[in-house]
Amino acid sequence: MSSISANELKTRGVSAIEQALADGSEVIVSVRGKDKYVVMSFEQYSHLRTCELEAGIHEARADMAAGRYVRESAVDHLNRLDAMK
Questions:
Q1: Under a CB-based contact definition with an 8 Å cutoff, are residues 5 and 18 in contact?
Q2: Are 2 and 28 in contact (CB under 8 A)?
C-alpha cells in the first residue's frame, strides 16, 4: 500500500493521491510520521460499503434463522430502547 505525508499532500494536492493510487487501491496519509488516514477511489469505497452491507444482511438472516429476534410493535420497541438508557 502506498503512503504519502500530509506535507506532500499539502504541496502537491490531488496529484499526489492520484499518483499514489496508480500503485494500489488505497493510500495511507501520514501526519508527523504516524499513519492517520486512508484515501481510496470512490469505486473502491463503494465496493467496500457494498460488502459491509451484504455482511450485515447475511448476519441478520442468520439471526432470524436462529430465532435471535424480537417481534414487537413500534411503540414497544421505542419503550424498550428508552429503558436501555
A1: no
A2: yes
At 35, which amino acid appears?
D
CA 23/CA 25 separation, integer angstroms: 7
Q: What is the dihedral angle through the alpha carbons of 76, 80, 82, 85, rounded to the nearest 10 degrees? A: 180
Coil, strand or helix at 84: coil
What region does 33 belong to: left with phi over 0, alpha with psi -120 to 50, or beta?
A: left
Q: What is the pTM of this model?
A: 0.71
DSSP 25: S
Per-residue pLDDT reduced to its tens digit, 36-83: 999 999 999 999 999 999 999 999 999 999 999 999 999 999 999 999
